[in-house]
């Protein structure tokens, strides 16, 4: 199964590197978010930012959140790739071989996770150009990198679970909106939890996007030691979604 998963994953990566439009999206999407949304709050007083955000520059607060959001949204491509393989007949050819359905699922999840990770250096570079100063903690950086991999796989699995039994090309986009918008605005990716009403804080405490974002802030912005509890929360999320994804794919994935 490992060799089959790797072969399918390699195909996902090759599709990515051969698409100039995918590369354009990997660069343009975070660039627009950072330049326009990030700078829309550039006028906030430094004292206010220091008190509530823990930074003197909102962009520094936003960069880890933007990376988390990008890794999450790239998960949509796992389900989108699966839908297109169905419509093009490629999945039917794969499933006539001894390849397990779970190998198809894991390769799609790993491919989408790779897309998300490729956005990380782009976002960090844009932040540096715009004046963000990083206070890097090496141990926290290593833990954050592992967390990004787990989160990428977890979100990819989550998207695929909801689209595994459809060949409708519109389904991944619809599911993307239903998942990413609530997770983004109930996390600390863009604003601190102190701004939330109590009921929203409770939701944020169960939001995996909050934990991967805070890992990134510890590693890049605050220079703080690693938070093992945050990593364990992300690992639990990934374990649940991947396990559920394998079960759903094995039960419901069909070539048509």
TrEMBL record:
Q: What is this protein called?
A: ABC transporter
What are the record's GO terms for cellular component? ATP-binding cassette (ABC) transporter complex
Its source organism is: Pyrobaculum aerophilum
| Localisation | Membrane
Using the record for this protein, list the coiled-coil segments as residue ranges, or answer none.
none
Q: Which GO terms describe its molecular function?
A: ABC-type transporter activity
Main location (coarse class): membrane
Record's bilayer topology term: Multi-pass membrane protein
Q: Which residues form the ABC transmembrane type-2 domain?
A: 21-252
PROSITE patterns given in the database record: ABC_TM2
Q: Which Pfam families match?
A: ABC2_membrane (PF01061)
Sorted UniProt keywords: Membrane, Transmembrane, Transmembrane helix
Transmembrane stretches, start-end: 21-38, 58-84, 116-136, 142-162, 174-191, 230-249
């Amino acid at each position: 199964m490992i060799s089959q998963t790797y072969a399918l994953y390699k195909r996902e990566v090759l599709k990515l590197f051969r698409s100039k439009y995918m590369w354009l999206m990997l660069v343009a999407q975070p660039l627009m978010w950072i330049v326009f949304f990030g700078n829309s709050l550039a006028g906030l007083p430094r004292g206010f930012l220091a008190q509530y955000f823990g930074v003197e520059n909102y962009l520094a607060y936003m960069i880890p959140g933007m990376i988390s959001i990008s890794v999450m949204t790239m998960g949509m491509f796992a389900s989108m790739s699966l839908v297109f393989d169905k419509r093009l007949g490629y999945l039917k050819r794969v499933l006539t071989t001894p390849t397990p359905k779970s190998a198809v699922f894991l390769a799609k999840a790993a491919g989408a996770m790779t897309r998300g990770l490729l956005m990380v250096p782009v976002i960090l570079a844009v932040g540096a150009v715009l004046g963000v100063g990083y206070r890097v903690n090496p141990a926290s950086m290593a833990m954050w990198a592992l967390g990004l991999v787990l989160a990428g796989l977890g979100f990819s699995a989550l998207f695929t679970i909801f689209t595994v039994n459809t060949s409708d090309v519109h389904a991944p986009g619809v599911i993307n909106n239903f998942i990413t918008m609530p997770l983004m605005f109930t996390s600390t990716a863009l604003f601190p939890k102190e701004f939330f009403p109590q009921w929203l804080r409770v939701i944020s405490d169960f939001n995996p996007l909050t934990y991967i974002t805070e890992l990134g802030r510890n590693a890049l912005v605050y220079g703080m030691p690693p938070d093992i509890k945050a990593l364990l929360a992300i690992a639990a999320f990934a374990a649940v979604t991947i396990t559920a994804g394998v079960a759903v794919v094995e039960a419901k994935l069909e070539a048509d």
